[in-house]
Protein 1
Amino acid sequence: MATSRDIIINRALQEIEDGMYVNLGIGIPTLIANAIPNDRHVMLQSENGLLGIGPYPLEHEVDADEINAGKETVTAQKGASYFDSAESFAMIRGGHIDLAILGGMEVAENGDLANWMIPGKMVKGMGGAMDLVNGAKRVVIIMEHVNKYGESKVKSSCTLPLTGSQVVHRLITDKAVFDFTDAGMVLIETLAGLTVEDIRAVTEANFTVSPELERMPVGE
Amino acid sequence: MATSRDIIINRALQEIEDGMYVNLGIGIPTLIANAIPNDRHVMLQSENGLLGIGPYPLEHEVDADEINAGKETVTAQKGASYFDSAESFAMIRGGHIDLAILGGMEVAENGDLANWMIPGKMVKGMGGAMDLVNGAKRVVIIMEHVNKYGESKVKSSCTLPLTGSQVVHRLITDKAVFDFTDAGMVLIETLAGLTVEDIRAVTEANFTVSPELERMPVGE
Amino acid sequence: MQQGKIYDSFTEATADIFDGATLVVGGFGLCGIPEKSIAALQEQGVKELTVVSNNCGVDDFGLGILLQSRQIKKMVSSYVGENKTFEQQYLSGEIEVDLVPQGTLAERIRAGGAGIPGFYTPTGVGTPIAEGKEQKQFDGKTYLLEEGIVGDFALVKAWKADKLGNLVFRKTSRNFNPLVATAGKVTIVEVEELVEVGELDPNEIHTPAVYVQRIIVGTDYEKRIERRTVREA
Amino acid sequence: MQQGKIYDSFTEATADIFDGATLVVGGFGLCGIPEKSIAALQEQGVKELTVVSNNCGVDDFGLGILLQSRQIKKMVSSYVGENKTFEQQYLSGEIEVDLVPQGTLAERIRAGGAGIPGFYTPTGVGTPIAEGKEQKQFDGKTYLLEEGIVGDFALVKAWKADKLGNLVFRKTSRNFNPLVATAGKVTIVEVEELVEVGELDPNEIHTPAVYVQRIIVGTDYEKRIERRTVREA
């Protein structure tokens, strides 16, 4: 059986189209990179200054001067370029990155995102997330639909401090896919096996249902 | 006998110290480059994107891709670098250029400079002059002391539209050298042969006289 | 990526530039100008252009040819003094001009490409350039607010591109080109040489491919020199 | 020029860094950090530093060693999560931290070096980062005012320098270093290799010599790796 993570990664993969420039956030989003089919030619951007991330290095290729934004050793693909951090975020903030896929803690029905701090806990910092959500042409958030207590992370409004206000274009959870439009939050897919009512039952946010609602394909 | 231009150039040369990064304006200031003694190692910046201007090219070295800010073909000295226009003015505006020597139309006793437009005449543009006068660590203006009608170009206040407000550190004319200090404009040198009274007679601006007033050396 | 960036003709690459469009154009004087794209625009006949470029060419070369054919409505430049056609059209009121200090122009284009809508600069304070602009004090010093520039199209001249659109510029023909490349909704780059992916050293790329939508190879570049200055051997 | 830029020892190159100074420091994580200059500072013993750097090293390497010796009063960073010493000192109130979004931090450092006292960015609008900051609308969208950063000293790690101070960086160890190099009143650069003037291609220099005041050659770089990830052959 597919895990929540598999479901999310498989669905997120569909967001990545041939020819795109994409930034994948640290953590689960980074795992998407390895799953991109070879016939989809994309360039992955790493905000520490690399456009065209390649696979992890072979043992003998490991180079301390070549890491990704998660501080993992990587390689550069053919046609890659290195640049400084100001250029990297000029690229991000200026709307030149087609797609950013980032993790989330909470997403609200108005497209607000919280993914960087929990009051009362040690705040480690937002890194590049705030720039990415305000800069990338399209922001897709991936996260589990409910927390470990079964509570909805898809909120009527975020309870955690925001990373960005009305910045999410699409939310992919292990149960559903939502779009954020001028007319509000719209359920566009459910996970195979779940009904719209099932989604309503685990979702705090108000949403409408897309007329073309399709079943969400599970990675099988 | 030394011409006004020779006097100005020779005096301006003394401003250029070993190790400096210098921007020389278009026109007369550019001529200073050729007169810099070989034992003074300076790097000349050209705001179109070259640090380390070399001599004019030999006939066979002429390269349309290598010009200075006056659109003249040049060469690059050893240790030069090329960069884009944003970087070039980051360098200028950020205070990294030690000295800019520019031409002037009028300089006022408060350090105002006018050198880019004459109302009623076709305005060609300010190019990089406004950035240079606000950015270089030190701004030295060179110009003839009086216009062709014998009127002082060293003014109590500028009559022409300004290039920069209170930006001039030193003014070198064919008759005198002035510094602009918190206490106002100070005559620090006169041209050999001229007295302080002679300078007062041709200068509209109010100025005090430096106690250490020396005779201005004529390039002989 | 987008292997489909490579165009076979300048006509095709500039075909959708529309009447009234804003173009941001690289080059300093006649150095590093996208001369083939400009020529294609004259042929294409688009009108009422707003052109953001440091200079406006000379009467019969560079952007000057678009003045002759009366295709430019407004120029945003730091210096337009090399061009008699410009002078005539300016004095007769046929063309508008917005003079911007060169460093401010460069920074505005860079800002536009970098998603910075406005920034403060000391340049122009106390001059006619400050008129109508918001001013603000930082540490007791006054600065002007200047806005970022984004064009409908950017026209760039590079030395080499690889087939993904990574660019390298040559000597002082770099000038405004890398900034301009970032500031077009569609960036059209003409190059002297197109190389295979992997031939450019990733450490030495001046403009990453992400900024480039269209690449065309130009041939027989005139590269006219404005002031040919030489020294004796 | 200034052939006198080359220093023989890190002790000498960092000797005048004073108590309470603001340092702007290059590197991302442990990649491209000026590890020798940081070590020299620990030896030198300067106190009450404000350090502007994207991260704060790990407990026993990079800027983390200056935390251990309690030399840092305040960090300005985008992410400080890799460091337990930091966490302890932060929770006990010994150290202040100013968290700045990474792109804003990069742009603030670049702005400081470029003479731009402030700029507007969309980053952080509607978040805790916006508190107390001036906001302004451009084209109906809200932006925050952020200020440029200039340090008393900048600490930079480059791959190669020539003897004039022209710099080249290697792969992703470039990161914040070129911006940091522009933003110090005194910029101190440590390099792996010092080459003769003329050996670097002027077309491929990342940081022009004008930004560099001091150069020192480091040896035996540790270049510690935070997350060694490899694939099978």
Protein 2
Amino acid sequence: MARKPTRPARASGKPRRPALNGLGLPKTEYRGRPSTLCKGCGHDSISQRIINVAWEHNLEQHNVVKMSGIGCSSKTPAYFLQGSHGFNSLHGRMPSVSTGAIVANRQLEIIGISGDGDTASIGIGQFKHAVRRNVPMIYIVENNGVYGLTKGQFSATADTGQSMKYHGVNELPPLDICIESLAANATLVARSFAGDPKQIESLLSIAFKHRGISVLDIISPCVTFNNHDQSTKSYAWGRENDLVLNIVDLVPPAEEIQIEDYESEIGIEMHDGSYIVLKKVGENHDPTDKRAAEDLLESAREEQKFITGLIYVNEDQEDLIEMLDLTETPLSHLPDRKLRPPEAVLDAINGRYTPLGTT
Amino acid sequence: MARKPTRPARASGKPRRPALNGLGLPKTEYRGRPSTLCKGCGHDSISQRIINVAWEHNLEQHNVVKMSGIGCSSKTPAYFLQGSHGFNSLHGRMPSVSTGAIVANRQLEIIGISGDGDTASIGIGQFKHAVRRNVPMIYIVENNGVYGLTKGQFSATADTGQSMKYHGVNELPPLDICIESLAANATLVARSFAGDPKQIESLLSIAFKHRGISVLDIISPCVTFNNHDQSTKSYAWGRENDLVLNIVDLVPPAEEIQIEDYESEIGIEMHDGSYIVLKKVGENHDPTDKRAAEDLLESAREEQKFITGLIYVNEDQEDLIEMLDLTETPLSHLPDRKLRPPEAVLDAINGRYTPLGTT
Amino acid sequence: MEQIAAVPELTISDHIVNDFSLTVATANGTGSQTSNLVLMHALFNMGIPVTGKNIFPSNIQGLPTWYSIRVSSEGFLARRELNEITVCMNPATAVEDMATMQPGGYILHDSAIPVAVRRDDVTYIELPVKSLVAPFKVPTALRAYVSNQIYVGALAWLLELPMEEIHRALQQQLKGKDSAIQLNLEVAQAGYDHCNETYENLAPWRVEPMAGFNDNRILIEGNTAAALGAVFGGVSLVSWYPITPSSSLAEAAADALPRYRLDPDTGKPTFAVIQAEDELAAIGMAIGAGWAGARGMTTTSGPGISLMAEFIGLAYFAEIPVVVWDVQRMGPSTGLPTRTSQGDILSAYTLSHGDTRHVVLFPSSPKECFEFGWRAHDLADQLQTPVLVLTDLDLGMNLWISEPLEYPDEPINRGKVLDAEQLDELAAEWGRYRDVDGDGIAYRTLPGTPSNWAAYFTRGTGHDEMSHYSEKPEVWEHNLQRVQRKLETARGLVPQPDIVRDAGERIGLISLGSNHPAVQEARVRLAETGIPTDYLRVRALPVNQTIRDFINDHEVTVVIENNADGQLHGILKLETDVPDHQLVSSRRCNGLALSARWITEQIITITQR
Amino acid sequence: MEQIAAVPELTISDHIVNDFSLTVATANGTGSQTSNLVLMHALFNMGIPVTGKNIFPSNIQGLPTWYSIRVSSEGFLARRELNEITVCMNPATAVEDMATMQPGGYILHDSAIPVAVRRDDVTYIELPVKSLVAPFKVPTALRAYVSNQIYVGALAWLLELPMEEIHRALQQQLKGKDSAIQLNLEVAQAGYDHCNETYENLAPWRVEPMAGFNDNRILIEGNTAAALGAVFGGVSLVSWYPITPSSSLAEAAADALPRYRLDPDTGKPTFAVIQAEDELAAIGMAIGAGWAGARGMTTTSGPGISLMAEFIGLAYFAEIPVVVWDVQRMGPSTGLPTRTSQGDILSAYTLSHGDTRHVVLFPSSPKECFEFGWRAHDLADQLQTPVLVLTDLDLGMNLWISEPLEYPDEPINRGKVLDAEQLDELAAEWGRYRDVDGDGIAYRTLPGTPSNWAAYFTRGTGHDEMSHYSEKPEVWEHNLQRVQRKLETARGLVPQPDIVRDAGERIGLISLGSNHPAVQEARVRLAETGIPTDYLRVRALPVNQTIRDFINDHEVTVVIENNADGQLHGILKLETDVPDHQLVSSRRCNGLALSARWITEQIITITQR
Ligand SMILES: Cc1ncc(C[n+]2csc(CCOP(=O)(O)OP(=O)(O)O)c2C)c(N)n1
Ligand SMILES: Cc1ncc(C[n+]2csc(CCOP(=O)(O)OP(=O)(O)O)c2C)c(N)n1
Ligand code: SF4
Ligand code: SF4
Ligand SMILES: [Mg+2]
Ligand SMILES: [Mg+2]
């Protein structure tokens, strides 16, 4: 329970004071417990981005809830915003639990973290319907194309032709989280790359202000299970030396892939030596134009590139809470007298069901 | 068990002989048991189309299987092709059961019937993944925007603003079966209207020849639960006379809505007096052009029209059975010797796990 | 329809007053519901104990439907197997309906339906429906609907039911729609007049106004009462997916909430009703709401219960309050969606993988549906666990005479929730899963609580008292033992069984839920034949000492239930220690509510062993 | 780690040969698996009874992992609670690992890990891992991996395990990768040499080659054996969704099928493996395949079992063969994904709403995993019903010494399937759900059968013998009774219990699955202390008369299982009629396999009551 703000004991001499945000809090207050992910995992970079933005935006942590499904990605809410309630729910079911939570307390800010397996495989149904309901929340997919936690099977976003050490070659076409979101009438759709701090932070800032659901599809390399036989990089030595082929439980330490800010396109070499191309939405892309957004995504899909940035936004569509027209007071905090009608109401109801008196 | 071909006993005089198809069978042989759907239900028209096309194409009924989920629509396989096996499975789960069946016996032709609730609500996950796998089957969604069998709740394809007698106004945007299919990389996407026999039959003929999955989204009006208070047509008299308002179990007989062949657009008045506009894909639409297909659907969605006809087709993509590279002989019919390796193989396996002999 | 064994002898010179059963056979979608409800309410308004069971098909139009009305001066409200009067409006079933009609009975039939084999042990009353309705200017679409009033009028004539009562009941049903009331009444009158002019009424059955029984009682469906219970229980979110026979519960809630639960200050909803995309989402939403401090509930039936298994395990293990109504229908699988059963008892009690046991409530009347409607939420909050309420199609979708709904006698109980002040005081001492009171129930906090000590991380994985992830063997064992300790606490908190003891030590009956009226009637019949019985009605699981004592106190205890495996019997066997011959299972499962006759026969057979 | 109660006294002057346990503590992701497997195989190759248990975390890298190797000259293969040697390679757990080490033990530790509190009742061997590995030119990424060979060498020195055996085992593990073999061996040698040069070996434990026990036995994981069983059982479709600890079963099948099941004529696959989008789809596909006449199977663990509940009910009621492997892990909910348990027994047996009872098999060795791997498909086909095979993480994912896999002694049994010829002969006489043989099992037809009589319409709704929809009460009752009759047939068809009777009438033990080695060992210990026991190992549900007789024949029967609720005990209580004091539950559930010590203590306590 190290959650209470602790100030470093003043030592002699001039103490190094950490920078404080508008609430007078150091950034460390926005951390969580130590990560248990693999060193170099993209998911950890994303957690760091959330910590930064939350600190910079002076977020009141007690108003935030962190929701997730099951997977390496879904574990991360334990690793940021220690002052927020979190709920590591069931595999693929984060959307419904989040929907219930926001209905219960409309004042909460929901940050949902999911994986590509969690969202695009088992969870695609709940995902699409949460999008369709425009549940007010940030929905982050930490997308690595594999099932990290269960040791590297393909997920539904794995690229066609991608190959994996123990699972052969993926022959199926991938589902694209952004295209799926748009098809289901998402009101904010964006994509980024775990190693692009600037872009993620700016998208998070936008998402925090968005009215309904914000879907952020963040490509987040798995350092461990994208290491297949054809890999060209860190494993080269091992391969030459026959060393790595039979090692099932070896996860060599790796570095996070970080990229610099880029102009319009950037090619990135992944841990496994494969190559992806990110392409920023152009300056003159109008993110309120849905057909343009779809075109952008579809043409990038044809070129096998990933469009990044704010792809689509619609601030006109009511969110779920508005549609439900709920009281301003969160349902969870209504006083008993608003939850239970008075006895006279029940008497009247009983009256409607009793025998008619003789007329 | 009236499935054996029966010929009418020859009466005296010249008997009226029914038309026979290439297999020497009258069309009645392709019927099923009597329908228990409401009179005038669009679903029954679709069954009739299947019967026609099957008869015309000289379909061997024993090679066909009829799969479905749960709903009024999902009941229909009992009402056509009496000579085919059928499987009325679970709500929303027809795709997985069909996948298993075709893997078991690749020689089967699968006709899958689903509803909009069955496919777009509970079943959206299995639907999208069956599409993604390109499971060779015809997948018909008998789309009425409501849950017929459970008495008229909105489904996920109900139009925004649509209102229903006992369920108020739908505020959510609809999922579009065709857009969803394309997003998931469907290889054949088409739409039609239950009352348009010609178009449905021609689309069915194309679908029977398609390599992978053929998604047919067929708008199929529910005569019973699209009767809401604002209705303008058959109920007018009742409304004026205060008669229908409290009748929960009244289903007045109605006529199927049939339309004539149309040029490019047609407006149709539904049973409830509402109006939909169908718009045929233009002559110069290239159904092999995916982005054109998407554009067509999205612009129609904006205009609130329904594009009908063959929207997209891709014959290049391998289907599931090809990807799995299965034996030509159906797995269900392999002889035991191909299913159980000989004893020597097991001896060798055991050998691999026994202690090393002294070298 | 079941085989009729005995013929009621009409030896009494006078009429049989307020004692008979009648069945109306129609096709569904013809709107006969109005007619049947008018009959039900007319009888109810006259003070006559009456019960109505709708046996309907799983489709929307055109298939056979039967509506059975039982009138019992003694106040027996169970389904009866015997049937004195049959109204045949459906050609499809007429042959069978007429053939299985018991001797001495009356058959009222549309004259368009020919009598296939004329029997001389029954009386036929022909109703020329078409020609009687012809004079009324009704569009074809509505002809079938108003035609049903013909049999209403005919029955009024047969039973000497005053037409004014029909009029009053019509007014009640069609509230203020005057021309509709008028039309229906006139058609009914035409039926009445036709019979009156054509036949002499030699039938033995009559209805007469009665005092006492219905006074202050209500006529209502269990699902409606349950929904109202939730409304008065402060439900915040009803997330549901349509499935017969539970849909009308959610729909009744959606109907009642906007009437009774708008914020008195702002006029805004203090509730949400969400039709989810499936049962997994429905239960997930309800759990999310419960976790965040509101009252979440979902309604479903068998297939939905199966789909909710994983989520119920999460709520059990992460200790989140949620209420699930299972209005049971016939299973396994899709089964018979429109037929009643009590086949989910064992499933519900042990739902989910791993070691789980749940609190399950069994209401047996609309009044109790209402009570458990609010109490389930209190229990869920107090115990921080899922509470499943098991009712069934018979109680949920049929009209039952019931004691009036009783206003909750306890304030809303939110259980152990800490606010910011309490948290700041407790500080590091608080642990989400720390059992400070020894009852297995720890204190929780809600998201949004403005205290630095409020936050914790909820998970369905192994966790210690601080809710931190742990794989330590002793942590797991310790935590699960505490959760199981809650079950012991639950034994004391759940509604206690309802016990009638007046028979001494020989025979005890145990039953539950909608079987109650049949058991009550059977006990009277058994007592009349010299077999007095004690009776314990289980109102909740887990069971407690009272139930064990009851079983131990009797030579034989018979557990009566409507399923194939004797599921309650199995659970009682598990949780008590009595030899098989002392705890006997009597079960039946054919889609119909149990009858007193069947129960009586069962008990007689058992006692004769 | 559990508390150690007793200290083994080293009173014998000579060495303790082939009798000790050692635990290696590392962090996961460091590649220690190679080292541990090398040790396991070296010992196995020497003919020594050995068992290895991997206690690993539910993450991928950096969290504590323990690998415990037990060597037992008597051939006891259960988990032992005592631990004579601990290898500390993980700083994160070293303090606790060292503190809980029993007196008299040896601690081998990386010298980079300081000894926090030096105890004088244990011996410390320091391994300067970093400097020993330094001379080898290995990239940083692989340094941790090869470092593990240091403790292999050190243990070889301590136990006098010949380095040639290490070499041979390395060759076995790294098949043909010569430079890797060489490197690993050299590092191990460095560890050996370091110890040899630095310490005098005063430890009491030695390993020595043994004859007899391992001869003709195999060392294999249960999941691998199960997958091979399916391969030889003619499985056609493995549709699965990843979940620990079942994934390796599906992956082993995906690995073995292309090796052994290509069509000998065309070289094409006679099988399909599909990774589904979730468990609902996985079971749906398997059921679709079974329906169409192939052999469908899926593999999962607790959460998946819950998700499959609705589909299992469909297969049960529509009578479709399908095989489900549940490799159990700790529940409820997500629980402890990497810890063993037997908590799904009751769930599996009664899975789904409505009245259902399933065939459940419990293998207790790799050999039996193989056998049930093929037999489950025969049973499913014969009975036309789902067959659930329940194993657990301990048996599934650990290496077990086993009798060799035994070639099926029966041809493939496809059950009652009619072909076109038979159908044409039977014509209208055939009904899909007609019980012509009186065993409750009807004849089915497959889609694609070229006969006009073949087609029928399968449904999970109420159906008559022709599989037509029916809501008739008597049709439902009749059909469900037939389905339940199948369960009676199943009692005779499922694998019969394994019974050892040599103790007379006092104490019977009942257990199942992976508890077998611990029970066997406990029986020896109990016999030594004057408490002889009989033993029945349940191999399948539903139970039959043999089990009832066994229980009735003993004064006390103790049911030993690894779950919190005593689930098998509950089922036996349900299905037999013995008083509580005669059928006692002994259960434990903390994520670890049961130990002989715990069982022994339990039985002693019970007998002393
Ligand atoms: C119902 C259920 N099925 C399967 C699992 C096993 N499981 C845990 S995480 C996971 C996949 C995670 O993949 P993804 O969402 O992509 O997350 P990542 O680990 O890649 O971040 C699976 C299949 C589970 N926990 N629950
Ligand atoms: C798991 C489950 N949940 C709910 C139901 C109840 N149910 C039966 S049909 C249906 C909806 C059918 O709607 P749709 O697929 O649109 O078919 P339609 O009747 O409109 O043709 C529902 C919710 C069910 N059978 N199973
Ligand atoms: S396995 Fe992959 S996704 Fe999981 S923590 Fe490691 S690097 Fe990240
Ligand atoms: S309810 Fe609607 S969908 Fe169902 S059969 Fe009737 S018309 Fe068709
Ligand atoms: Mg992933
Ligand atoms: Mg529909």
